[in-house]
Write a structure and sequence with these properties.
Layout lengths: L2 H17 L15 E2 L6 E2 L6 E6 H6 L15 E4 L7 E4 L16 E5 L2 E2 L13 E8 L13 E7 L8 E9 L3 E12 L3 E12 L3 E3 L9 E3 L2 E15 L2 E14 L5 E2 L9 E2 L6 E16 L3 E19 L5 H8 L2 E22 L5 E23 L3 H9 L31 E23 L4 E21 L2 H4 L6 E21 L2 E12 L2 E2 L11 E2 L2 E14 L4 E19 L8 E21 L3 E14 L8 H10 L9 H9 L16 E12 L5 E11 L2 E2 L10 E2 L2 E11 L5 E8 L7 E6 L7 E5 L4 E9 L1
Parallel strand pairs: 6-9, 13-18
Antiparallel strand pairs: 1-2, 3-8, 4-5, 6-7, 8-9, 10-11, 10-41, 11-12, 12-15, 13-14, 15-16, 16-19, 17-40, 19-20, 20-21, 21-22, 22-23, 23-24, 24-25, 25-26, 26-29, 27-28, 29-30, 30-31, 31-32, 32-33, 33-34, 34-37, 35-36, 37-38, 38-41, 39-40
Amino acid sequence: MNRVSVLLTGVCMAAITGSVAHAADTPPTAIEEVVVTAQKVKTDLQKTPLAVTVLSGAGLEQQHIVAPKDLDNIVPGLVVNTTPSNPLAISIRGSGYEGIENTSAQPGVSYNQNGVYIASPISLNANFLDVDTVEVLRGPQGTVLGQNSDGGAINVTTVRPQLNRYTGYTDISGGSYGYDRFRLVGNLPVGDTAAVRVAVQQEAHGGWSNATEVPGTGGKYPLSNEDSVNARVDVLWKPIERLTLEIWGEHYHNSTNGDAYKNLDDPNPDPRELTQDFASKMKQEADNVALSGAYDFGWGTLKAIGSYQRGKLDGSEDLDKLDYATALPILGVHDIDVANNRDGHSYTAEIDLASKPGGKLDWIVGGFYLYQRYNEAVEEYQYNNNAANQAAYAAGDYNTYAAFGLPVNLSASNPYYGETAGFNGPVAFETRDTQKLQSGSIYAQGTYHITDGLRLTLGGRGTVDNQIGVIQDYFGLEDRNNGVPFAVLKAKFRKLTGRAELEYDITKQNTVYAMVSNGIKPGGANLNPGAVDIPLVFSPELVTAYEIGSKNEFFDKTLRVNISAFYNHIHDFQVDSEDPIPFQGGLTNITSAHVDGVEAEATQLLPYNLRIDANLTVQESKVDSHQQLLDPAVAEQIDIANGGPFNGNDVSQRFAAYGAAGGDVYGHALPKVPPFTFNIALQHSLYFGDGSSLVSSFHVVYRNPYYFRIYNNPLTDRLPSQHQFDVNFSYKAKGGHWHADFLIVNLTNTDAINSRYTDNFGTFITANYYVPPRQFIGRIGYAF
């Protein structure tokens, strides 16, 4: 009997054992209080005048949210998209991460763990490990949080070491597609003043999809698979009552074949079967180490925290998502990334001094510093239909570089089709570049209690960003220039952001607030010295947000309803666009745009031990200024009509397309702003006389069609509606030590599109990423 069968049998036996006991009606009498740290001090969610969604570690497990990417569709206003060979693209209320292929670009949503700004985008691919809470803050965070952000923030708090307690848990999971997870967590006290918490997790599963044309695999080369390891050690030392010191380190490693992105031109109608012939590979590593200290003076607390972060990505990828025979008649070439390597190092430092809560004036002052260095190396090959290419393909030389990590070995007689015909081999694009970012800021914020129920908050922040982009090698030009870098580009920005807010307690359970705030996403350099339209340096993106909200509890705290309405004016909105000159695309700025909407969250305790948790979002967006942009998908069609990518005769047509009336994006909807989403979970708790319990839940998510890019092309950009149903059963035995869970994820086995990706380089293909198929997962665990 395999592991999955054992787990499912155990879950069924646990449920049967519980069902023969005598039920006892012991429902909770009120909705639990939720404590958040959104403003760097602990406050009740209902008295925190921000649009905040809080997910507990137990709630994440119940919905099988195992990584940041799984937060998509769960939180109002939040869209999370995977991208091939690139970081996650996280967006809140339209502000996100459009420049994922540019190492100079910064995200619009900051990600923080235990108070540390996680600068390495590769770390966002790591799975959640021993999480206490996840807070999602919606709207600009331009005052007290570590890194300035214009979309919002995700704050992850892990379970911290506890003094004088031996605790921990372990569990093992198994399920469909070879799903396999093992976790072990332990809290170990060291004397009376110190404690160590250790968490280890291994997780793996087979591919959701197959590449059907990879030689030697029988049409079953798995994609979207996983083989990851997470580990964290957290040490707490409290030598005296007023002083707390903590150091933690975390490691993440994942080795896969890459995500399954299906080209819109793939002739196979099965969304899980991809007509690809290149054995893509992807390795990701992330290491984060942080040291923090806090001293309580009585009247206030001084905190300091520093971190070192490293992220590394090594990949090779089928860029056109097709095989050689299919790609040639459609694109003119077969496009492959034989090397896509990123190696990043980041350092952060932050210090703040906060008053003791409860006075007439609550205040905090502080400063933040970030240094980030990213090295990138890319080598792209394209094969056309000349005799040398055909011979290489037939001889198998085409796949000599498929073994990940081995040097490329291709015939020098294989010229690239296009402007780079003088190169040896089928080289289409080659670059090595380095991006450096230094960001420093100081901030202050205070809340004045005008009366017991009326409060005024004012905050401000000054930010200075310096960036340097160095192209060491661009189409081999460093060698031609005797080692001299091809180009050095510099950018420097200074911005002031702030927040003003008035909140009023109508009753102890009903609070209203009104706020105006702003935040920025840094600008940067495109490393495109030959561009005629796309700037060498793009400007910071600034969001000015106006928001009103109401937080309420009714009927003895059995009903909680939180509502917010917002209007976000976006200045210099950053978007990816193509330049009329080949290879010179990048980020540019749209002068003015806006997003407005209403978000609501509700929790209701019902009779018969039922509970409903629901949220919904209604929003609209629009570009408010006129601007000409060249859609990469349009450039692709021009290239195809001329026989292949960048064949030299298409530049004049690119200029004509850039100036065409259809290139004005005025009035377009912004990318990743679904007009309507809702999320509802119905939960039933059954309590047994022996102290055991069975919790059953049914979860539904729905999202309206929306545009994935600024161009609003109905063929390439419009994503269809998405819906999904999940089921969970969780049995906890008497004493609370043993538990067994059974989950069905994607109950109806929908093939909904989670995200879409249009490559801004190469052949500009557009591809879909589908939600994982139906999975059955069983779990047995023990807490001690």
